[in-house]
Amino acid sequence: MLxxxxxxxxxxxxxxxxxxxxxxxxxxLIPGDAVAIMLGANTEVTPERIAAMRGALGxxxxxxxxxxxxxxxxxxGDFGTSIWTGRPVMQEIAAQIWPTLQLTLFSLVxxxxxxxxxxxxxxxxxxxxxxxxxxVGAIAGLTIPSFWLGIVxxxxxxxxxxxxxxxxxxxxxxxxxxxxxRLLLPAIALALPILANLSRLVRTxxxxxxxxxxxxxxxxxxxxxxxxxxxxxxRNALIPFVTSVGIMTGYLLGGAIVVEQVxxxxxLGRLILGAIAERNYPLVQATILVVTVGFVLVNxxxxxxxxxxxxxxxxx
Length: 316
Hints:
Elements: H1 2-28, H2 34-39, H3 47-57, H4 63-74, H5 89-124, H6 129-143, H7 146-160, H8 176-210, H9 213-220, H10 225-262, H11 268-277, H12 281-309, H13 311-315
Helix pairs in contact: 1-12, 5-6, 5-8, 5-10, 5-12, 6-8, 7-8, 7-10, 8-10, 9-10, 10-11, 10-12, 11-12
Protein backbone atom coordinates (compact mmCIF):
# COMPACT_ATOMS: atom_id res chain seq x y z
CA MET A 1 0.00 0.00 0.00
CA LEU A 2 2.86 2.40 0.88
CA UNK A 3 4.55 1.66 -2.44
CA UNK A 4 1.29 2.35 -4.24
CA UNK A 5 0.91 5.71 -2.47
CA UNK A 6 4.51 6.73 -3.25
CA UNK A 7 4.11 5.80 -6.91
CA UNK A 8 0.88 7.75 -7.19
CA UNK A 9 2.45 10.75 -5.39
CA UNK A 10 5.33 10.76 -7.91
CA UNK A 11 2.84 10.57 -10.77
CA UNK A 12 0.99 13.49 -9.20
CA UNK A 13 4.13 15.68 -9.17
CA UNK A 14 4.83 14.89 -12.84
CA UNK A 15 1.24 15.66 -13.82
CA UNK A 16 1.27 18.98 -11.93
CA UNK A 17 4.53 19.99 -13.64
CA UNK A 18 3.05 19.17 -17.05
CA UNK A 19 -0.08 21.15 -16.21
CA UNK A 20 1.99 24.21 -15.22
CA UNK A 21 3.78 24.12 -18.61
CA UNK A 22 0.53 23.73 -20.56
CA UNK A 23 -1.24 26.52 -18.65
CA UNK A 24 1.71 28.89 -19.08
CA UNK A 25 2.02 28.29 -22.83
CA UNK A 26 -1.75 28.31 -23.38
CA UNK A 27 -2.08 31.79 -21.90
CA UNK A 28 0.67 33.10 -24.18
CA LEU A 29 -1.17 31.73 -27.23
CA ILE A 30 -4.34 33.74 -26.54
CA PRO A 31 -4.70 36.34 -29.34
CA GLY A 32 -4.16 39.94 -28.23
CA ASP A 33 -1.58 41.83 -26.23
CA ALA A 34 -2.20 42.65 -22.57
CA VAL A 35 -0.08 45.81 -22.76
CA ALA A 36 -1.88 47.07 -25.87
CA ILE A 37 -5.26 46.44 -24.21
CA MET A 38 -4.20 48.15 -20.98
CA LEU A 39 -2.94 51.26 -22.78
CA GLY A 40 -5.46 51.20 -25.62
CA ALA A 41 -7.80 53.77 -24.09
CA ASN A 42 -4.96 56.17 -23.35
CA THR A 43 -4.32 58.73 -26.13
CA GLU A 44 -0.77 59.36 -24.92
CA VAL A 45 0.48 55.86 -25.67
CA THR A 46 4.03 55.87 -27.00
CA PRO A 47 6.41 53.03 -27.94
CA GLU A 48 8.49 53.95 -24.89
CA ARG A 49 5.50 53.53 -22.57
CA ILE A 50 4.61 50.19 -24.16
CA ALA A 51 8.21 48.98 -23.77
CA ALA A 52 8.33 50.18 -20.14
CA MET A 53 5.05 48.43 -19.32
CA ARG A 54 6.19 45.26 -21.03
CA GLY A 55 9.41 45.31 -19.03
CA ALA A 56 7.55 45.92 -15.76
CA LEU A 57 5.36 42.87 -16.44
CA GLY A 58 8.36 40.76 -17.46
CA UNK A 59 6.88 40.14 -20.93
CA UNK A 60 10.08 41.27 -22.68
CA UNK A 61 12.08 38.33 -21.32
CA UNK A 62 12.60 35.02 -23.17
CA UNK A 63 9.70 32.60 -22.76
CA UNK A 64 11.76 30.07 -20.82
CA UNK A 65 12.92 32.73 -18.38
CA UNK A 66 9.34 33.97 -17.93
CA UNK A 67 8.24 30.42 -17.12
CA UNK A 68 11.05 29.85 -14.63
CA UNK A 69 10.36 33.11 -12.79
CA UNK A 70 6.64 32.32 -12.68
CA UNK A 71 7.16 28.72 -11.53
CA UNK A 72 9.72 29.62 -8.84
CA UNK A 73 7.28 32.13 -7.37
CA UNK A 74 4.26 29.81 -7.79
CA UNK A 75 5.80 26.97 -5.74
CA UNK A 76 6.08 29.48 -2.88
CA GLY A 77 2.42 30.42 -3.27
CA ASP A 78 3.18 33.75 -4.96
CA PHE A 79 1.25 34.01 -8.23
CA GLY A 80 1.92 37.71 -8.69
CA THR A 81 -0.53 40.60 -8.71
CA SER A 82 -3.53 41.31 -10.90
CA ILE A 83 -2.61 43.60 -13.80
CA TRP A 84 -5.79 45.61 -13.43
CA THR A 85 -6.41 45.83 -9.68
CA GLY A 86 -2.86 45.49 -8.35
CA ARG A 87 -4.05 43.03 -5.68
CA PRO A 88 -2.36 39.64 -5.16
CA VAL A 89 -4.12 37.17 -7.42
CA MET A 90 -4.49 34.64 -4.61
CA GLN A 91 -6.55 37.20 -2.68
CA GLU A 92 -8.83 37.63 -5.70
CA ILE A 93 -9.17 33.86 -6.07
CA ALA A 94 -9.78 33.35 -2.35
CA ALA A 95 -12.55 35.95 -2.46
CA GLN A 96 -14.46 34.09 -5.20
CA ILE A 97 -13.58 30.43 -4.79
CA TRP A 98 -16.16 29.62 -2.09
CA PRO A 99 -19.30 30.03 -4.24
CA THR A 100 -17.78 27.69 -6.84
CA LEU A 101 -16.69 25.11 -4.27
CA GLN A 102 -20.07 25.19 -2.55
CA LEU A 103 -21.95 24.87 -5.85
CA THR A 104 -19.69 21.99 -6.95
CA LEU A 105 -20.08 20.13 -3.66
CA PHE A 106 -23.86 20.71 -3.60
CA SER A 107 -24.21 19.38 -7.16
CA LEU A 108 -21.96 16.38 -6.48
CA VAL A 109 -23.86 15.37 -3.35
CA UNK A 110 -27.17 15.80 -5.17
CA UNK A 111 -26.16 13.89 -8.30
CA UNK A 112 -24.03 11.12 -6.77
CA UNK A 113 -26.30 10.71 -3.74
CA UNK A 114 -29.38 10.06 -5.88
CA UNK A 115 -27.50 7.96 -8.47
CA UNK A 116 -26.85 5.05 -6.06
CA UNK A 117 -30.46 4.28 -5.08
CA UNK A 118 -31.70 5.06 -8.59
CA UNK A 119 -29.12 2.74 -10.19
CA UNK A 120 -29.99 -0.02 -7.69
CA UNK A 121 -33.69 0.33 -8.46
CA UNK A 122 -33.00 0.22 -12.21
CA UNK A 123 -31.02 -3.01 -11.71
CA UNK A 124 -33.74 -4.45 -9.46
CA UNK A 125 -36.43 -3.61 -12.03
CA UNK A 126 -34.27 -4.63 -15.03
CA UNK A 127 -36.26 -5.26 -18.18
CA UNK A 128 -39.44 -3.76 -16.72
CA UNK A 129 -41.34 -0.61 -17.67
CA UNK A 130 -39.93 1.35 -14.75
CA UNK A 131 -36.39 0.40 -15.81
CA UNK A 132 -37.14 1.48 -19.39
CA UNK A 133 -38.58 4.84 -18.30
CA UNK A 134 -35.62 5.55 -16.02
CA UNK A 135 -33.10 4.58 -18.71
CA VAL A 136 -34.78 6.87 -21.26
CA GLY A 137 -34.80 9.65 -18.64
CA ALA A 138 -31.08 9.06 -17.99
CA ILE A 139 -30.27 9.36 -21.70
CA ALA A 140 -32.29 12.58 -21.86
CA GLY A 141 -30.42 13.89 -18.82
CA LEU A 142 -27.10 13.26 -20.55
CA THR A 143 -28.10 15.13 -23.70
CA ILE A 144 -29.49 18.29 -22.07
CA PRO A 145 -26.81 20.99 -21.66
CA SER A 146 -26.59 22.36 -18.12
CA PHE A 147 -26.70 26.01 -19.22
CA TRP A 148 -29.84 25.42 -21.30
CA LEU A 149 -31.55 23.62 -18.41
CA GLY A 150 -30.51 26.44 -16.11
CA ILE A 151 -32.06 29.08 -18.38
CA VAL A 152 -35.31 27.08 -18.68
CA UNK A 153 -35.56 26.62 -14.90
CA UNK A 154 -34.76 30.29 -14.36
CA UNK A 155 -37.54 31.45 -16.71
CA UNK A 156 -40.02 28.92 -15.30
CA UNK A 157 -39.38 29.83 -11.68
CA UNK A 158 -39.43 33.56 -12.43
CA UNK A 159 -42.86 33.10 -14.09
CA UNK A 160 -44.47 30.77 -11.56
CA UNK A 161 -42.81 31.93 -8.33
CA UNK A 162 -41.42 35.47 -8.72
CA UNK A 163 -40.62 35.69 -5.00
CA UNK A 164 -38.19 32.73 -5.20
CA UNK A 165 -34.63 34.11 -5.07
CA UNK A 166 -32.79 32.32 -7.86
CA UNK A 167 -30.11 34.80 -8.91
CA UNK A 168 -26.89 35.90 -7.24
CA UNK A 169 -25.18 34.58 -4.14
CA UNK A 170 -25.22 35.29 -0.41
CA UNK A 171 -22.75 33.63 2.00
CA UNK A 172 -24.13 30.78 4.09
CA UNK A 173 -22.90 32.50 7.27
CA UNK A 174 -25.07 35.56 6.53
CA UNK A 175 -28.28 33.91 5.32
CA UNK A 176 -28.32 30.06 5.33
CA UNK A 177 -31.79 29.75 3.78
CA UNK A 178 -31.10 32.38 1.12
CA UNK A 179 -27.77 30.73 0.33
CA UNK A 180 -29.35 27.29 -0.27
CA UNK A 181 -32.28 28.82 -2.14
CA ARG A 182 -29.99 30.62 -4.62
CA LEU A 183 -27.81 27.55 -5.17
CA LEU A 184 -30.69 25.08 -5.62
CA LEU A 185 -31.44 25.71 -9.32
CA PRO A 186 -27.80 25.88 -10.52
CA ALA A 187 -27.03 22.76 -8.48
CA ILE A 188 -29.90 20.87 -10.15
CA ALA A 189 -28.72 22.05 -13.58
CA LEU A 190 -25.23 20.76 -12.88
CA ALA A 191 -26.32 17.59 -11.07
CA LEU A 192 -28.69 16.21 -13.73
CA PRO A 193 -25.97 14.95 -16.15
CA ILE A 194 -24.05 13.55 -13.16
CA LEU A 195 -27.16 11.74 -11.93
CA ALA A 196 -27.90 10.36 -15.40
CA ASN A 197 -24.36 9.15 -15.99
CA LEU A 198 -23.71 7.65 -12.57
CA SER A 199 -27.11 5.96 -12.27
CA ARG A 200 -26.51 4.13 -15.57
CA LEU A 201 -23.06 3.16 -14.33
CA VAL A 202 -24.45 1.82 -11.05
CA ARG A 203 -27.13 -0.12 -12.94
CA THR A 204 -24.56 -1.79 -15.21
CA UNK A 205 -22.19 -2.58 -12.31
CA UNK A 206 -25.05 -3.96 -10.23
CA UNK A 207 -26.27 -6.21 -13.05
CA UNK A 208 -22.70 -7.49 -13.50
CA UNK A 209 -22.35 -8.12 -9.75
CA UNK A 210 -25.74 -9.84 -9.52
CA UNK A 211 -24.58 -12.40 -12.08
CA UNK A 212 -21.57 -13.49 -10.03
CA UNK A 213 -21.27 -16.80 -8.16
CA UNK A 214 -21.07 -15.20 -4.70
CA UNK A 215 -24.50 -13.63 -5.27
CA UNK A 216 -25.98 -17.00 -6.17
CA UNK A 217 -24.35 -18.41 -3.03
CA UNK A 218 -25.86 -15.65 -0.91
CA UNK A 219 -29.32 -16.33 -2.34
CA UNK A 220 -28.86 -20.08 -1.83
CA UNK A 221 -28.19 -19.37 1.85
CA UNK A 222 -31.63 -17.80 2.06
CA UNK A 223 -30.70 -14.12 2.22
CA UNK A 224 -33.45 -11.71 1.24
CA UNK A 225 -33.26 -9.76 -2.03
CA UNK A 226 -32.67 -6.49 -0.20
CA UNK A 227 -29.67 -7.92 1.69
CA UNK A 228 -28.25 -9.46 -1.50
CA UNK A 229 -28.71 -6.19 -3.38
CA UNK A 230 -27.35 -3.69 -0.87
CA UNK A 231 -25.02 -5.77 1.36
CA UNK A 232 -23.20 -7.85 -1.27
CA UNK A 233 -23.70 -6.53 -4.82
CA UNK A 234 -23.54 -2.80 -4.07
CA ARG A 235 -20.07 -2.96 -2.47
CA ASN A 236 -18.46 -4.25 -5.68
CA ALA A 237 -20.58 -1.97 -7.85
CA LEU A 238 -19.18 1.05 -5.99
CA ILE A 239 -15.64 0.52 -7.33
CA PRO A 240 -16.29 1.98 -10.84
CA PHE A 241 -18.69 4.46 -9.22
CA VAL A 242 -15.94 5.93 -7.01
CA THR A 243 -13.60 6.24 -9.99
CA SER A 244 -16.24 8.04 -12.03
CA VAL A 245 -17.02 10.47 -9.20
CA GLY A 246 -13.50 11.89 -9.53
CA ILE A 247 -13.97 12.44 -13.26
CA MET A 248 -17.41 13.95 -12.66
CA THR A 249 -15.90 16.44 -10.21
CA GLY A 250 -13.75 17.79 -13.01
CA TYR A 251 -16.85 18.03 -15.19
CA LEU A 252 -18.63 19.97 -12.45
CA LEU A 253 -15.78 22.46 -12.08
CA GLY A 254 -15.82 23.07 -15.84
CA GLY A 255 -19.61 23.24 -16.07
CA ALA A 256 -19.84 25.58 -13.11
CA ILE A 257 -17.99 28.25 -15.13
CA VAL A 258 -20.92 28.50 -17.56
CA VAL A 259 -23.73 27.93 -15.07
CA GLU A 260 -22.36 30.64 -12.77
CA GLN A 261 -22.77 33.11 -15.62
CA VAL A 262 -26.42 32.08 -16.12
CA UNK A 263 -27.29 32.52 -12.43
CA UNK A 264 -25.01 35.56 -11.78
CA UNK A 265 -22.96 33.74 -9.16
CA UNK A 266 -19.69 35.57 -8.42
CA UNK A 267 -17.47 32.48 -8.51
CA LEU A 268 -14.32 31.35 -10.29
CA GLY A 269 -16.18 31.08 -13.60
CA ARG A 270 -16.90 34.79 -13.75
CA LEU A 271 -13.35 35.51 -12.54
CA ILE A 272 -11.77 33.37 -15.29
CA LEU A 273 -13.92 34.78 -18.10
CA GLY A 274 -13.25 38.37 -17.00
CA ALA A 275 -9.51 37.72 -16.69
CA ILE A 276 -9.35 36.16 -20.17
CA ALA A 277 -11.22 39.11 -21.72
CA GLU A 278 -8.79 41.54 -20.05
CA ARG A 279 -5.67 39.45 -20.89
CA ASN A 280 -4.90 39.48 -17.18
CA TYR A 281 -2.10 36.92 -17.46
CA PRO A 282 -1.26 36.41 -13.76
CA LEU A 283 -4.92 35.97 -12.79
CA VAL A 284 -5.77 33.65 -15.69
CA GLN A 285 -2.73 31.45 -15.05
CA ALA A 286 -3.33 31.21 -11.32
CA THR A 287 -7.09 30.58 -11.63
CA ILE A 288 -6.80 27.87 -14.27
CA LEU A 289 -3.94 26.27 -12.34
CA VAL A 290 -5.95 26.26 -9.09
CA VAL A 291 -8.96 24.65 -10.81
CA THR A 292 -6.78 22.09 -12.61
CA VAL A 293 -4.78 21.22 -9.51
CA GLY A 294 -8.05 20.79 -7.61
CA PHE A 295 -9.26 18.36 -10.27
CA VAL A 296 -5.97 16.41 -10.16
CA LEU A 297 -5.99 16.24 -6.36
CA VAL A 298 -9.60 14.99 -6.30
CA ASN A 299 -8.66 12.25 -8.76
CA UNK A 300 -5.62 11.37 -6.63
CA UNK A 301 -7.88 11.04 -3.58
CA UNK A 302 -10.24 8.87 -5.61
CA UNK A 303 -7.28 6.75 -6.68
CA UNK A 304 -6.28 6.27 -3.05
CA UNK A 305 -9.89 5.44 -2.13
CA UNK A 306 -9.97 2.95 -5.00
CA UNK A 307 -6.96 1.20 -3.49
CA UNK A 308 -8.70 1.04 -0.12
CA UNK A 309 -11.85 -0.47 -1.62
CA UNK A 310 -10.12 -3.00 -3.88
CA UNK A 311 -7.60 -5.17 -1.96
CA UNK A 312 -6.13 -6.49 -5.25
CA UNK A 313 -4.74 -3.02 -6.03
CA UNK A 314 -3.04 -2.77 -2.62
CA UNK A 315 -1.27 -6.03 -3.27
CA UNK A 316 -0.09 -4.95 -6.75
